[in-house]
Fold these 3 entries.
Entry 1:
Amino acid sequence: MNSRATKLLSVAAVAALALTGCAGGSKAPQGGQDGAQADPYAPVIVQSGFAEKGGNVNVLMSADFATLDPGNSNYVQTANVGQLYYRTLTMAKETAGQPPKIVPDLATDTGKVSKDGKTWTYTLKDGLKFEDGTPITSKDIKYGVERTYARDVYTQAPQELNSALTDDGYKGPYSDDDLEAIETPDDKTIVFHLKQPFAEFPALVSRSNTAPVPEKKDTKLDYTNHPVSSGPYKVKSYDRGRELVLERNENWDPATDPNRSALPDTFTFSLSSSQATISQKLISDADPNAITLDSNGAMQASDTASLNDAKVKARTASGFLGCIDVIDLNTETIKDPDVRKAIALAMDREAIQVQYGGARFGQLVTSQLTPQMVGVTEQKTDLSADGKPKLEEAKALLEGKDVPKNLVYGYANSTERYKNVGTVLQQNLKELGIELELRPIPAANYYSTLAGKEMPDIARSGWCGGADSSSARMTVDPNLGPSLDGKTYGFSNIPRFYDKDLSKKMYELRGANGTPEELGAKWSEIYNEVMATYPLVPTMHSYTNSVVGSNIRNAQVGYFFGAIDLSTVGVAK
């Protein structure tokens, strides 16, 4: 997310970057602080092993959070900062370079399941309190989940957990009395009743739905201004669009929470810096206590040489993410699968990779499913592995077709890289006789715009695999699956893909039994079928380089968060 104006790199510039190992599908030279790592995509942790408490971390960001309300968030940035002020039944604990592991958080374990797989029971730990000292009960967790059903209020509420529960048309606590799918027989016990068996359920209750919310403190949409803390920090002050300050929550008991080190005394978030300013501050070490949560560490394509500097490299946390970027094609406005396929084949994904900064910032991919996912079968595609366009094939597909003359590409206005991606697409589509308008969208409203009536014809988005990144379902179903009732496209389905037969297969597969390998293969196979219609085009599997200030310790890039994991960092005083 930046505002630096950079021109589309020419063919000559691409060739020059290729010589330095930073273009196309080549691997960029990386390495740890000694610069000698054999694996160019191995994770790097900056100054690990630090355990001293105190100090302040300055988090530099180019835009405000879309929300701080755990019940209205489907964003990894909110999940990252959220782990500082709220806790959930389970937690996706990050380890650099690896898919996160599901561990107990508010609960004593990852859940006890009934023999039929449809009932999950959790027991809360002793000593859990909100920031005001009142005990956290199972009813507070149930109420937190109930709020996410009020879709007329919380338009971005995560829905994966809700889709698994037997809700019987429940509409939330403001209009209905009780969600019968969740029982709270006592203050320490919470029981979930599912429509169908769901082997990955412990990952679902690591989502922000299960953050406890005290009903008497629920201020609906204003809750984002001061969510009541159940974690190690609480909101001290929040000036929307300018600054957020978190301070220690004195009623958080570290004995109940082995997952968060909570080393700094405070976190100060600056919410309106340009990415160009952020990257230069970090590279120059102008603020030794600074980090960023911006994508790709706020680094620009022009920062490649600086990242090779030994002093900067020593302050660079890096790692492969579970995040894969795609170009979404709105299937409601670009209805013909052949037209979508032609657009996909015409894309110069190699040039798109250059706009991300080259191979240093990730690998080109032709699928959202990765080898780490259990049971994934061969991924079939007509996209070129090296990212080069197939213009002649694309043009042949359009013969005799009703081809749109004008389309719109929407991008987050704080991210120059995404605008530059649009410039690449603009040139590619011109070869097909299609004029592409580039339309900026306010970054804070970007994903809500994609989910609403103003969704453009083409847009870029990313998906970070979810808490259970080893499950193909946790990528395929949210991105391409149907709604909760199976009658239309799902909430996170940005391309709005819905096919009577394929969507029905996905809906039915949600309740299938089998081993993780068997289910993974089935989701993988249906992904191939859906992708033959090109609702989206995979581009980059992100490898993030995030420079931190010289006082920052334990800095690691979270596989799920796609940025510095806030739960681990410390600061030397």
Entry 2:
Amino acid sequence: MAGLQADSAIPQGLAEAKKDEFEYEKRHHSVDVASASEFHEPDGIHDGLTFPTEEERATLRRVSDSIPWSAYLIAFIELAERFSFYGSSVVFTNFIQQPLPLGSHTGAGGKDGVSGALGLGQRASTGLTTFYQFWCYVMPLFGAYVADAHWGRYKTICWSVGVAMLGHLLMIISAVPGVIEKPHAAAGVFSLSMIIMGIGTGGFKANISPLVAEQYKKTKLYISTTKSGERVIVDPGYTVSRIYMYFYFFINIGALVGQISMTYAEKYVGFWLAYTLPTIVFCLCPIILWIGRNRYVRSPPTGSVLAGALRILRFCLRGRLSFNPARTIRNLKADDFWETAKPSSQSIESRPSWMTYDDNWVEEVKRGFKACAVFCWFPIYWLTYNQINNNLVSQAATMTTNGVPNDVLSNLDPFALIIFIPVCDILIYPALHRLKINFSPLKKIGFGFFTGCAAMIWAAVLQHYIYKTNPCGEYAGTCETPSPLNVWIQTGSYVLIAFSEIFASITGLEYAFTKAPKNMRSLVMSVFLFMTALANAIGEAFVALSADPLLVWNYGVMAVLAFIAGTIFWTVTRKLDRQEDELNNLDAGHVEGSLAQQGATASKEH
């Protein structure tokens, strides 16, 4: 947030008036520390920069800044964590569902066999793995609260890594010879490891994503000159977007290498190795966290601000709720909905005792709630994406694979992401910027829904031809003879899903960071992650379509849902999209405006 001294457009007298007003608020209304800290930049990050005029904002090309090295270190920590997460969970299905192979002490199936351990069957396997996914994406809500209110993001991540390490060790114990041969004991230890791993993963995921973007400290647009002499605007929003693209790039490197290597470790050596190798890689997390401890930009905890944000919302709702739904919606969408909660809208004598913030805090809370409203559409997107984790794997098994394991093809998704993320960063997005095409975050998210829809259309058409060419017709899943269609035809679905992730998922991370109040970033990020848990819960309603002869309907329904959701999403967010620059610039200049407004109010009242 820019300090008073950073904006030369503010007259000295007005600056002094603002300081006097703040001191008055501090004495009489106990202005909180979070607000006070916004008045001055501790490191002068914007000192000496030239800021664009309105005309320059409209005409100059925008570019991103360079990415700090500390962000790459944190991205590598995420790579190691995702390697361990996906590398271990990729073998869960066989570990739970299949019995221990005859004569095996490790669960390895060998070249011609199927690996297994607990022998609990498909229903138990589906139930446990679904619970694990749901648990891992519910726990970020708890991890976010701890970070925002008590420990801060860095400390919460460190403790979460320790908890997850304990889960990894228990998982190894469940698979070592001697334990794995006792299914009941192995199942108990394994279930406990899943619960502990979920707690650690939740605390890690809620905080690592905000921490990586916080390594870039600039919040204002500023003018720069390229090597060719072109004057451009360096946009912090573009920079954050780029940080998250490469953050996601690192995620998928970890996921791809972990998933492929551990399936072979499970098959030829045993589950103990498939759980041990991810644990060894996971040990890199605490090492790199410690090495970079003095380089990371950290945000200290500010106490629980959720209660204060909800109090602001409740204050704004007064007198706006009605038994008439249309009137209620109209009142909630009114332009002045949040104005009543601003201190400048209340006389100093009539302000409630809890109104110890400035106008800018209300604007940030407003922005945070709008971001959470955007995330409410994501369960439909994740419902579409989740098809690559189950139904598309099963679809591959009904096609001619020529010796390629059917569950390996799902790695086409991270493989495509590793290729196309740099393509988007180096070619596509810069080309759009040069053409002055504003491919804003909300446009990207909407486009992500439509590319997800296209992926499901591809899968539905392919499923139709599988039924048409398979000897068993619409019961291809139970047929011993596969369809003559080559399994690599599925590539289209995976590439389209990968593009949808670039547009929707990566941008969702960016949106959660840029639109959240500074002391609620972990919380808003956890709300975004929680949408994945909701998608898993909603997905249970569509299980009946996930079997022959209804699979064409399954993919068709997903395509229709994604298309409708994308259309409605863009319809309701167009107005918000036009406010993108204004919302991003809250951190850069609205403090001054809100304080000037309060100073004017104070002068009138005194």
Entry 3:
Amino acid sequence: MPSNFNEHEMTKLRNIIAELNREIIKSKEHEQTVLSEFSSMNNDLVTLQRELAKNNSRLNEAKNQAVQASEAKSEFLALLSHEFRTPLNGIIGMTEILLMSSLTEEQRQSVAVIQESSQLLLYLINDILDLSKLEAGEMKLNPSDMNLRSISKHVNMLLSAKADKSGNQLYSEIDDSLSDTLIGDGTRVTQILMNLVGNAIKFTQDGSIYTRIRVLSESDQRQKLRIEVTDTGIGITKEDQSKLFRPYAQTSDGQQSKYGGTGLGLSISKYFVNLMDGQIGVISDYGEGSTFWIEVSFEIKSNGETKIPAANELDMNRLTAVTLETTDCIPCTSIEHPILIAEDNSINRKVVLVQLEKLGITNIDTVENGEEAVAAYLSRTYCAILMDHMMPKLDGIEATRKIRQIEQDEMRPHTPIIALTGNVTERQRKECLEAGMDDYLPKPITLETLREMMQRWLPEMHDDSILNEEVVMELLNLSEDKKGELLESLLDMYQADTPSKIDQLLHHIHNNQYSEVINSAHDLKSSSLSLGIEHLSLLLGKIETSARMGCLEEPKRLKELLLPAYEKACSEIKKVLSSVHQ
């Protein structure tokens, strides 16, 4: 019995062992399969990692190529701008000079055609550059005081001749509750309105164009506005409306040669409105006119002062691109030292030379490249240097650096160097200023912009224009009941504040407080411009610009001129008021 039992148990144990062996074998086979699958997955993972690394490398390469392409595009546009503006400066400058001469009516009409064509070409160049800056994210808003009533009036005034030519009437309807002074980029708002009203005129014949500004709401010292430009023109189809506000997109009618244009204006306007956190749109039925609308909020200027036209409104005429006036020679007091023109293009050199002579400046030297500019600087003392940016042998940037180094090494007095350039990008402006240039004058150069620049950097050069008569007369005529009451009230306020502010500015200059000098000079300049006090404003503008450049040598030289200029201006305004009261 025991032996049978042992045999049975042994058999059972053998079977269990055999089963365990089979399980072990299966387990090992499964383990092998898992290991094989893991190895395969690991290989796949390694392959994926390699592919990811390759893709990352391709992405980095693509990113670098995109950056290089963007930089190449910017450089190309800068070069294109310079190349376009250089001959355009010759056309516009000489046209301006020609208009000052005695012309027959037929000749004057021919010059007017040249003037209009050059303006259109400059608008196109500006639009292309604006679009490039916006797409690159380089465009920034510059908020300051603005008066939308004045902006609307200014736009209609600028476009009135164009409207008359097409038999159109321009109208404005502005909400009475609109604040007189808002904080915003008045230049860009003007540009938007110029585009919208200009388009309305373009596509309307013998009709009406209305600019309406309504206050939608007011809260937290902000006003939400709706600005509409409505015309009675040809209208826009639903299909074409979907194309608007995209770069280079034009409606079917807009593509006709008789209307002209590039399709950039609306897309640029949309970019600006977006920067203002606003919205822009259109309502139109084909054949029944169009309404382009903008909804945007602006901060209300919070102070208890009487609202007067903001300073930036006086500069809005820059948007007209070219201002050709038939003025005579503008005399100035003689300057002690000559002015140097460094310009390689013979036409542009001649234009600037003639423009300076029209301003009464006849002591002028000219050179054709940067090397000659440095040599001329070493041989003579100049009161200012007008330096072209792109020149052979030595460009304007390097020539300026050499001159600044000579000034430092030989302890020479600071000579104002003003860049003359067809490249109007922010990057180019920065490069010029960092090289040691004091200011920046983009081509095409008009007589008025050149005069302003010379007065800014040469206070001794002025045309006895203590006051801007146009601004003074506008303020004089604003009083509804008693003529001159507003001007007299504003003068009283100005006289109450200005002497102490000038004292503060002098204190800041004496203590080398750059930011305080900038703020004080800007504040005084704005209030002075608003009253039409021109010469004092020019002095303050130069002080502000010099401080921004990190230099207080010029402000220290000019500070003694401030109080006499202030007192002379107040005296002249009192004479105007006295003549009115008689």
